Amino acid sequence: MQTQNNNTTEQRHYRKTVIELYTEAVDKVTSSRLSAQQVSASGNNFTGLNNNILANAQKELGYKSNVWFTEKQMQEQNLVQIDEDNYGVILFSTYLKDIEGTNRKEKALRFYKVFNKDALETIPL
Known about the structure:
Blueprint: H1 2-30, E1 39-40, H2 48-61, E2 67-70, H3 71-76, E3 79-81, E4 89-98, E5 105-116, E6 120-122
Parallel strand pairs: 1-2
Antiparallel strand pairs: 2-5, 3-6, 4-5
């Protein structure tokens, strides 16, 4: 029973953090001018609220680069975080999820962390 309680508490805490992140980003975006375009390491532009979240993070953290890497892209290019105090920014995307092998589809949220190019360095080989 205790383990189930801890998991529920952790989920609520994490969920609250994500909601707060989006709320802060929306508040900042609505009170600011257009956000600078943010780009993934694969060259695709981020759109919508994700672009605004990253533009705010870039500005607040003092990054010059507008390029962001996922953990997978970091591994592929032998990159690591410069400082453990740096943190990733949580973004959302949606995808269709097949329900029990039927033709019925359901949208689901997927979230992931991205790290600014300025917060990364190459691993010496």
